[in-house]
Write a structure and sequence with these properties.
Layout (H helix, E strand, L loop, with lengths): L9 H4 L22 E3 L11 E6 L13 H11 L2 E10 L11 H12 L1 H11 L6 E9 L6 E5 L12 H10 L3 E4 L23 E6 L2 E2 L23 H6 L5 E4 L15 E6 L4 H10 L2 E4 L5 E6 L2 E2 L3 E3 L3 E9 L4 E8 L2 E6 L15 E9 L11 E10 L2 E8 L12 E6 L2 E8 L10 E9 L5 E8 L3 E6 H6 L2 E4 L6 E5 L5 H4 E9 L6 E9 L4 E4 L2 E4 L8
Parallel strand pairs: 2-3, 3-4, 7-9, 14-31
Antiparallel strand pairs: 1-28, 2-10, 4-5, 5-6, 7-8, 10-11, 11-30, 12-13, 12-15, 15-28, 16-17, 16-29, 18-23, 18-27, 19-22, 19-24, 20-23, 21-22, 24-25, 26-27, 29-30, 29-31
């Protein structure tokens, strides 16, 4: 390393500002939103919680998916804070399938059983408190009751064949483990959740999003389309569960079957915890201090009368809602929902760009891939190596957007940060196995600069090429370069996103006379389709007023 270069760790590279960063306050039109005001500049989070990102539902060849177990850990530890490999373990009421296709599951369960010792050993090997947290767990299938993942709190974990959901709940409770129901919105009897047996004391949260789709509502974007279990059933959605008075929080994870933890676009889990340890992350999961995102790592902080997302609090007529969001692209809207109904919307997309907007950091997304479309039958893997350099500016953070496909045991997607002006990207893309046929990867740079800051891309693979654009030029138009003649892959520099369009913070007071249990949650939607959902906060007239 030459003089002046700074070695930046993964945690610093992917640093977050939701809790520790300085909040931004924006004025609003009080004639149209009298209960809304810019966030108080002296707002105190009253907590030393940190934001951590993880995936607690992911698969590989230890089961019936693809990829080695060590590869999964290598990938997870390169860009996530915590991870649980949840290998396929059993399906006690599995149907006999045409052409004996059920044997795929049977063989996968045997692989998991045979490698259980290695599953536990690698979780212990990779666990490094303060750097990376690994949990031990597995997935339990059931046609009648729905699929569930068990997450053990520590190194003591047992793989047991269990044929009753009640027995599974008792098994988990005795070991202080948690059970996370996933892809809940399929029809009951077709591996959708049977809410009548849900026990929130051992299942504090439900998976709202994965590669299966979005379980918030049967009318929400992200339909169930990829699997044999059909589409979403209204009564099995999260909104309907909350309507029934059930108090569960939200998680999201990939359920990826190409052995790629944290695969972009397939779901990711965020937790607020005091430290990066098993004990602290597990405490956050049990406290429902969690939220989920579908793709981009949208940072979201939501409080109600000072209470965290996931809490149950005494009922109050005046509900002061504080929301703070930092997106990774233009935020179309931030929605406050009470009892599943939107009661307020904030639209950062509508905020005008002024000269002073450049004084705060901007986001620049560098997306690469594409290549020959499927009808040409030219499926291939394209290797990428390029360096991003800034002139008259600084890189504050770099966020990966790496998808799972194509499967490759040896290749890796990597961001190598050299200093605050340069970073190197090593990656690979293909239309082969591209999730949602999105044959691209991306890196998002958070840049402190000015319109005159210049971004240079110097590539050595798949072609030798160098080009430079100022942020002023990119603000006028995004820019694409191709790596060869027609059908070749390309790289796109998106228009920079200014702070007022990707950040927001506001207080909203809802005057509401309680008639029973109310619940509030936040939904954030970016223009690129990325969504974030907070766990709800419940107001219960019967709640103990001393509960914190």
């Amino acid at each position: 390393m030459s003089k002046g270069e700074i070695k930046i760790t993964r945690r610093k590279l992917l640093r977050h500002s939701t809790v520790t960063g300085v909040g931004l306050a924006f004025g609003v039109n009080h004639s149209t939103a009298p209960a809304v005001q810019a966030a108080s500049s002296n707002y105190n989070p009253q907590s030393n919680m940190n934001l951590y990102w993880g995936d607690i539902h992911n698969h590989n060849a230890v089961g019936y998916a693809k990829g080695s177990l060590r590869r999964s850990y290598d990938i997870a530890s390169s860009h996530l804070d915590f991870f649980c490999f949840t290998g396929h373990s059993q399906w006690h009421d599995m149907p006999i399938m045409p052409q004996d296709k059920h044997l795929k599951w049977v063989r996968g369960f045997e692989v998991m059983k045979d490698n259980w010792g290695q599953v536990k050993a690698l979780a212990e090997e990779y666990y490094k408190p303060g750097e990376f947290v690994s949990f031990i767990g597995y997935e339990w299938h059931s046609s009648a009751y729905g699929d569930v993942c068990i997450i053990f709190p520590g190194s003591e974990a047992e793989l047991r064949t269990i044929k009753s959901v009640r027995e599974f709940q008792a098994f988990a409770r005795a070991r202080k483990a948690i059970l996370i129901p996933h892809h809940p919105s399929y029809k009951q009897g077709w591996r959708g959740q049977n809410w009548s047996v849900l026990d929130t004391t051992v299942s504090p949260a439900v998976e709202i999003f994965s590669e299966h789709g979005n379980a918030e509502s049967d009318r929400a974007p992200g339909r169930y389309i990829r699997h044999s279990m059909g589409g979403r059933i209204t009564c099995n959605t999260l909104q309907q569960l909350w309507e029934q008075g059930v108090q569960v929080g939200i998680v999201a994870s990939t359920d990826d079957h190409l052995g790629y933890p944290g695969a972009y676009g397939e779901g990711l889990l965020a937790v607020y915890a005091e430290s990066l340890t098993r004990e602290s992350i597990m405490e956050a999961l049990k406290a429902r201090r969690t939220y989920g995102v579908s793709a981009d790592r949208i940072e979201l902080d939501f409080r109600l009368n000072g209470h965290w997302m996931g809490e149950t609090m005494p009922a109050a007529a005046a509900r002061k809602i504080h929301v703070k969001v930092k997106g990774k692209g233009v935020i179309d809207r931030v929605e406050v929902l009470r009892n599943n109904q939107v009661i307020h919307r904030d639209h950062p997309i509508d905020r005008p760009v002024r000269a002073s907007s450049w004084e705060k950091p901007v986001l620049c997304r560098i997306e690469f891939g594409w290549g020959p479309w499927g009808d040409l039958n030219m499926a291939r893997i394209c290797d990428w190596r390029f360096k991003l350099s800034l002139t008259d500016g600084k890189i504050l953070s770099a966020t990966p957007c790496f998808q799972s496909g194509p499967f490759d045991e040896q290749r890796r997607n990597t961001i190598r940060t050299i200093d605050d002006r340069t970073c190197e990207v090593i990656s690979y893309t293909s239309r082969l196995q591209a999730y949602e046929e999105r044959a691209t990867n991306a890196v998002i740079l958070e840049i402190q600069g000015s319109p005159e800051t210049r971004l240079t891309v110097a590539a050595t693979e798949p072609a030798q090429m160098t080009f430079t654009k100022s942020l002023k030029q990119l603000a006028q138009s995004s820019h694409a370069e191709f790596t060869g003649p027609f059908t070749a892959e390309s790289i796109l520099l998106h228009r920079p996103v200014l702070s007022g369009n990707y950040r927001t913070e506001f207080d909203f007071v809802d005057e509401w006379e309680p008639k029973g249990i109310d619940w509030y949650y936040i939904r954030v939607v970016q223009t690129n389709g990325s969504i974030a959902w907070s766990s709800p906060i419940w107001l219960d007239p019967a709640s103990d007023p001393t509960r914190k």
